Amino acid sequence: MASVLAWAITTAIVISILVRRRQLKWRPLASIHAIFRHWGEVLSISIPAALSNITTPIANGVLTALVASHGAAAVAAFGVGNRLESLSLLVCLALSMTLPPLISQNYGAGQITRVKKAYSSVIRFALCWQLGLYLVFILIADPVSNWFTSDPDVAYWIKIWILIVPVGFGFQATTFLSASTFNALHQPLKALWISLIRLFLLYLLGVAWKLCRWVRGDVCCAGFGQCINGYAGLVLGEASFTEFNAARVDTPI
């Protein structure tokens, strides 16, 4: 109920700002045919984008189940790692929200060079930013692990997670930035396929599941799996964008 009220109040405030400050005008309803046509155009992008966004929590849920088979300490460490992951990716997540309008505006105006420059600049920034955060994590691994728990077993696995997993955060950031870019370029299916291949084929089935069966210490195995899956996402995103550049026509949409 609290979530419903929070989102309802937020929506009301946003609409109020759009109407009062941005002069949003309410037009009379068009014909049913026009309404469904407009809805179809929006849904053709929003449905694949939504499916792409829900792949991450689904994959994390499956991975948590794999981690749970190795006891409470592994689950606790993995949970702490997920919180640290959310915080460390916050800046790049904000970029993924602000990049699509820039990409769409320039692509619609036929400014393909600006699209390529914006994408390349954001990818370079994400890699450098996450690398810097990883170096910070290395320096504070001991105190951070002790902040979260007094259990030496859990603290040990938290430290292992900090030393391994954040290496792949830069690659992971480039993945969802690439997905946002393809959504802005009206190619949401490419974004969806990047997420599906990265998370399910390469991460869960190809890496984490095998490692979890062969090696005890699930958090460590999941960490290596996440690094590999992040790099795979970077490769997929770059390859898809290169393919787009080779096939695109320098004309407005």
From TrEMBL:
Membrane-traversing stretches: 58-81, 87-109, 121-140, 160-179, 191-211
Alphabetized GO MF terms: antiporter activity; xenobiotic transmembrane transporter activity
Subcellular location: Cell membrane
Keyword NAD: no
A Pfam family matched in the record: MatE
Signal peptide: none
Keywords: Cell membrane, Membrane, Transmembrane, Transmembrane helix, Transport
Topology class, membrane: Multi-pass membrane protein
GO cellular component terms attached to this protein's record: plasma membrane
Domain of life: Bacteria
Protein name from the UniProt record: Multidrug efflux protein
